[in-house]
Amino acid sequence: MAVPQIDPALVQALPVPASLLGESPCWHPAEQVLYWCDIPGRQLNRFDPSTGAYQAWSFDVEPASCAPLQSGGLLLAMRDGLWQFDPDRGRRTCLAEAPYDTQRQRFNDGKADPQGRFWVGTIDEPREPLAALYCHDGGELRRVADGITVSNGLAWSPDGATMYWSDTKAHTVYAFDFDADDGSLSRRHVLAQFAPRAQGQSLDDYGGRPDGAAVDGEGAYWVAMFEGSRVLRLGPDGQVLAELKLPLRCATMPCFGGHDLRTLYITTARENRPADELARQPWAGRVLQLRVPVAGLPVNFASS
Question: Which class would CATH give 5-291?
Fold first, then answer.
């Protein structure tokens, strides 16, 4: 049976500069703005769709992911640790130092769970399976899972009983049973697995590998397929429910935003892409948007 297609003509690009590697789009419900990171560009970005105002903050290290804080401001996961960031003053305060060799690894995808714990994984830059998943709770940072190379895809089901996590290099999305009371994980199993790129296979014939993700109100898991020119909507059983084909190679992460959470924002990348590819794909690195029929889950605020 053919996979239902989402009309690609609905996709537009935000009127903001392109990122080298856009990641971690986050809709702030109180501010009604979109934040996202440019990791190698060492920049946090903000866009207000109601006014068109755009602002960016630059750092001396890479910001990889962000989440709104209950106490105000943002929590930033950066190469050198977790930080509280005040956008109004442009100041950051350290919450936790990096628990790894910063010459080899950095934080990557991170999100808060419904109880306010902040979960964040790492990426091993030599691409060995030495990355891990951490949880920041009550001022403590603990290691909770490992054995992967590129941590991505964090999200929770609408009832909070399932947590999703992916290893991009392994082309695999995992699901855990999630205990909301203590944040413990159990019964790790494969939600979806995708074919790796075969030797000599054209990128045009490659479906991509799972990167960042978001969950909608029906419990479907929307995942950006890096180098696959598409975003997939997966059911809770891992079956592909719909496909959105994109006019660029590297989508990195979706999120839901807007006043009704029915605007899907998608960050993308242009870093290290071939010049001829970029010439054909002028939206590479831009943030994309489209309206979707099912609203997403609201962002969770981190407690600290």
Answer: mainly beta
